[in-house]
Amino acid sequence: MRGLLCWLVLLFLLQPWESQLQLAGPRCHTGPLDLVFVIDSSRSVRPFEFETMRQFLVGLLRGLNVGPNATRVGVIQYSSQVQSVFPLRAFSRREDMERAIRDLVPLAQGTMTGLAIQYAMNVAFSVAEGARPPEERVPRVAVIVTDGRPQDRVAEVAAQARARGIEIYAVGVQRADVGSLRAMASPPLDEHVFLVESFDLIQEFGLQFQSRLCGKDQCAERGHGCQHQCVNVPGTFHCTCNPGYKLAADNKSCLAIDLCAEGTHGCEHHCVNSPGSYFCRCQVGFVLQQDQRSCRVRDLCNGVDHGCEFQCVSEGLSYRCLCPEGRQLQADGKSCDRCREGHVDLVLLVDGSKSVRPQNFELVKRFVNQIVDFLDVSPEGTRVGLVQFSSRVRTEFPLGRYGTAAEVKQAVLAVEYMERGTMTGLALQHMVEHSFSEAQGARPRALNVPRVGLVFTDGRSQDDISVWAARAKEEGIVMYAVGVGKAVEAELREIASEPAELHVSYAPDFGTMTHLLQNLRGSICPEEGISAGTELRSPCECESLVEFQGRTLGALESLTLNHILWGWWRGLEGK
C-alpha cells in the first residue's frame, strides 16, 4: 500500500511538470535549430529519477517548433558507453520523438561525459546524422544533463566542440560537479550552467531554457536590414539569401552567384547565368544536344523549307541540294533534270520485328506504297518484290508476280506483321541468293537491268550484316538503307552503297517518314536498256563522247591499214 501511494504521488508530481512546460506559453518559433540532448543514464541515476528526466524531455519537446525546416532534435544517452537514442534526421513529428523517449532504457554503468561530448561533436552533429551543413548557419545546441562527476576529462573535448560552433548548456542535478559543468558550458556561464538540487526541480531549467530559446522575435523587433531573409536564433538573428545568391561582406546584402564563372558548367559554347542556376546556349547555326551542354550543327534541312527536289544536305550555316546519280542540278539550285523512264528490278526489305509495333507497321506499308506511286511499274519497266524479316525471312511477293502499281499496292496492304527479332543479315542473304534470281522474276544480267535493294529498319540487327552487305554490292546490287528511330547509323552506312549521303536516309520516328520520299524520289532512276547487252547512253555525255571518239579512231586506223595491205598485194600480183 505504501509503494502504491509513492507511485501515485510521483505521477501527481510528474504530470504538472509536463503540462507546465507545454502550457508555459505559445509554442516556441526559434527559426532553424539543431538540438541534441546528451542524457546521463549512469547507475547513479535511480529509476524514478530517470523517469523524471524522461518526462522533462517530453515536456520540453512540446514547447518547441519541431520540423525538418525548424527545430531538429536528436537524443543520445551515455554511461560507460554512448548510445544514440535517435539522430537529428530520424523524426520530423513530435509524437515519434516522444515514443522513442518513452521506450528509452537506461544503460546503468559509469559516467563518461567526455566520451559523450566527443560523440555529439563528431557523430550526432554530422550532416550524415541530419545536422544542417555549416554554410547554412543553423545554430547547433547541445544540452548535457548529468548527476555526477565525470570519470574522464571534459574540458578539452568541450572546448573543441565549442570551437566547432556547438553551443553547450550544462545541467547538473544533485551530486553534479560544478567545476565540470563550467568546463563544459559555453560562455556566458551564468546563461549556460544550471544546477538544481534534485531531479524533481529539473523543470525549472526547462522553463528557463525554453525562455532562452524563444526570447523575442529579433527579426520583427529590430531593424535587421537583411536584403532577402532574416532568421531568428536564440538571442539574436542573422541574414540569409535566396537560392542562387550569397551573403555579401556586410552580412546583410546578397550577391548573385556567378555559376558560369566557376568553370564547372561544361557548356561547349556559352554559359548563361540565371538565379540559382545556369543554362547552356549554342552559337548561331548550332543546336543544343540532349545533354544540354554540347552543341551540334543545326540541320537546316529539317528546320527550313529548303525546296530541294531530291536531297538537302546541311553545311554549317547553310545547305545545298543534291540530285541522284545521272541527273543534273538545274539553275534554280533545287530541282533536277528529268530522269528517263527505264528498267529496274527493285526489292524492298521491310523490318517486321516487335520493336516496330503494329500501328507503325501500317505506316511502313503506307510509306512503301508512296514509293510505288512514283515508279513505272510494269513487266517491261520497273518490277517490285517485297521481303519481310524479323527472326526469320519471308518473301511476301517476288519480282515477277505483279505487273501494275495497283496490284503491288494492294499486295503491300495485305502483308501481315511478323513481330519477334531483327535478323537483318539473314534478310540480306535471302535477297542476294533468292530475291534477284530469274526464278523469282529478276531479268537476266545480260539485259543490264539495274538491280536495286532498299532496306527499311528501326533498330540494331541481332546478327552480322557485314558479309552479306558487302556481297550484295559485289553482285552489282545498288543498296539503299532507310532507318527510323533507334536504327544504328553505322549499320545503315554498311548496308548502303557509296556515297552514303545519297544512299542513307533517316527519320526520328515513324510519323515523320514521309519527308524521306523526296530523298528517294528519283534515286531509283536507271538508264533504259534497249536490247540484250546494249546500254542506252546520251550521246552528249562526256563518257559517251570519249568512247565514240575511241571507236572512230580505231575504225579509221583499221581502214588505213587495209588500204596499205591491198596496195602491197596488188603489187605482188603485177610481178
Automatic annotation (TrEMBL):
GO CC list: extracellular region
GO MF annotations, alphabetized: calcium ion binding
Cellular localization per UniProt: Secreted
Signal sequence extent: 1-19
This protein's UniProt keywords: Coiled coil, Disulfide bond, EGF-like domain, Glycoprotein, Repeat, Secreted, Signal
Main location: secreted
Domain VWFA: 34-213, 345-520
Keyword Transferase recorded: no
One Pfam match: VWA
Keyword Disulfide bond in annotation: yes
Transmembrane intervals: none
PANTHER family, A to Z: COLLAGEN ALPHA, MATRILIN-4
Name used for this protein in its record: Matrilin 4
Organism placement in taxonomy: Eukaryota, Metazoa, Chordata, Craniata, Vertebrata
